[in-house]
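Inputs:
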Amino acid sequence: MTKKIEAIIREEKLNDVKQALREIGIVGMNVIEVRGHGRQGGIELAARTGTYYVDMLSKIQLNIVLSDHNVDKTVETIIKAARTGQTGDGLIFVTPVDQVYRIRTGERDKEALSYEGDIDTRRGSKNGPKAK
Amino acid sequence: MEAVIDTGDTAWILIATALVTMMTPALGFFYGGMVRKKNLLSTLNLSFITMGLIGVQWVLYGYTLAFGPTQGGWIGGLDFLGLNGVGAAPDPNYSATIPAIAFAAFQMTFAVITPALITGAFVERIRFRTFLVFTLLWATVIYAPLAHWVWAVGGVLRTYGALDFAGGTVVHIAAGFSALAFALVIRGRRGYGSISIEPNNIPLTVLGAGLLWVGWFGFNGGSALGANGLAFTALMNTNVAAAAAAVVWMLLAWSDKKPSVLGIVTGAVVGLVAITPAAGFVTPLAAILIGAVGAPISYYSIKFIHSRRLDESLDVWGCHGMAGMWGALATGLFATKSINEFGADGLFYGNPNQFVIQLVAAVGAAIFAFVLTFVIAKGLDKILGLSVSESEEEVGLDVSEHGERAYA
């Protein structure tokens, strides 16, 4: 079973999250610059005089597609790396993915998702090979 | 006395004319950065097309209305229609050492930027064709007479003794109070006060402010009409007033929240406005004070307008009207003949009467510009409509008025 993780995180946490994911063997991801807000609503920015209210905040959405059994570890890693404890840390959604195709080879599903040095090939090794 | 062209003076006015010409597109960037992305081209264009409109109007009849032989002190006669007779020979009434056409060209750049300043009041919802008519009318019935009163030989305010070195009254008070009047007539932007209207590109505003600062050396330095010590006094005063105002504004914004860059560059422009009427009449130390005091006057004027929920969108009244008013009054306080023998002494140099003269001239010009603009705007609203429809505004003026978008 294939899953998709959509993680909405703080812009400034992208590098930390990317690094942490590489360390567990998650290399492939898409990053989308998104705007929005959660329950904190927005923030005040400095204007010419005083402040003004901005309700569409810049966030990063990470999209990662992976096999079911790797979801928990990946989500834990993202939470650990992206968390500050302040409002606005973001949300993670996990949804099922019906099919995956790799355009270059025509492979599908699990084959389309696996590559050398990925999270499955380094299971059992504590540090695992360094991803490029 | 035979008038002889001075090539140094002429070369400086050539450069100063180019510098002030640059200020109008620079103003477009200054304003353009502060609007939403969907109105960026529209806002840039309100300044740019003014170079087109007034560039023609000035040659055809603007110059002669402003600087033709006076008709009772109120307006220029039509002798210079189409710049007839305005050529290489100097006009000793204005400057004996540069060609008359150099003076006309230099003055043209002021006539262009002044209506462009007003556009900050109505960006993001103005109907373009109405704007074109307004700008031509405004240049004709407000700018030309005012320039005549203040600067022309025999003009009523010049004869009365009012000092305006480079346009504090003619340019900034006129534009600022006209902007206020226009904002009172045109409807505000949709959602003003309830949704956040965010500047699309503050770096553009910083770029514009930087170019305005440089251009202002031509604006104020060139108003000495010669390559001489007075030009450099004006330039130094201009720089130090902008510098002081930028620093003071930074502190004001910091005490409210953070030292915003938008605030700092606004402060610089306000300092430039405030020193404009005084640049060639005061000492550099007085210029620091003029800039430093101009910043809070403008800052709190803007806050006041915001508290009244009036959508005078880019604070033209606060920045130009009120800082211009302060500059005109400050000229009456700090002017000294030791800087400029053709000026006057102000209140702090033993001549309180100069302050009264400045007050009368500045307030008179403000009322004239405000009332007439209000009437013109009301009339145009009836005949042509001032603003686009709400759906056109939602889409943005770039697409709805110009059929373009700023970015692909």
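Confidence is low (pLDDT under 50) at residues 126-132 of chain A. Flag for discussion at group meeting.
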